Amino acid sequence: METLMGGPLRFYQLVFVSILCAACYSSLPEKIPREPPDNLQMTSNNFQHILSWRAHSDPTVPTYYRVLYSSHSNWKIAKQCSRIVQPFCNLTDDFQVVSDEYSAFVQSFVGTEVFNSSLLYFSPLSETFLGPPEFNLSSCVHCINITIKLPPTHLRKNGKLLSLFDIYNKVDYEITLRTVGEEHKVNS
Ligand SMILES: *[C@@H]1O[C@H](CO)[C@@H](O)[C@H](O)[C@H]1NC(C)=O
Ligand SMILES: *[C@@H]1O[C@H](CO)[C@@H](O)[C@H](O)[C@H]1NC(C)=O
Ligand SMILES: *[C@@H]1O[C@H](CO)[C@@H](O)[C@H](O)[C@H]1NC(C)=O
Ligand SMILES: *[C@@H]1O[C@H](CO)[C@@H](O)[C@H](O)[C@H]1NC(C)=O
Known about the structure:
With 188 residues, the chain is of the alpha+beta class.
């Protein structure tokens, strides 16, 4: 009686266990190789500097990042990026001396391992993108009235936002006027 009942029961248990195992093999995550962050890029407009990078993170392993930068001296930890999970960092408040050349890199902390990215070099004064300006046009007798307003910057000094004039002392722009068959350039 016991063996008659036990036989089929064990068969069902075996089938159940093997189905479970098939499920657990297929759900095992593919192992992602652990590598340092790479592809560092600076997106900088009007002195707002955002560093981004490509993460090689395995979603099953807790990962966080730290951004370090330096101009002449020791490495400093970026104010807003000492322990972040997103793959970008706002360095606007860190790069205060706009004429300096900064180096920056990203450390990733993956479980118990630490990886350093390669260095990115950046000079705010010469590499930030400026613009676009705001302008209004109106007509007057035998003239065109163009009012130009330069974009605000994100750079602060003593808590106050600086203008492009404060930073560069001189800003050049070129105005091109096109009419049918004619073109005039004005430099200012
Ligand atoms: C970056 O930081 C600057 C200065 O704190 C701030 O003005 C700006 O809005 C920030 N930009 C982003 C995208 O968070
Ligand atoms: C990563 O950078 C830190 C800070 O400069 C340094 O102390 C550490 O030795 C570096 N690690 C590797 C593996 O290069
Ligand atoms: C353009 O005109 C609008 C509406 O009058 C005004 O709000 C804006 O400040 C002007 N911009 C410039 C650059 O003068
Ligand atoms: C040009 O526009 C500005 C701002 O609207 C105004 O203050 C100025 O008087 C205008 N000039 C002429 C010549 O119309």
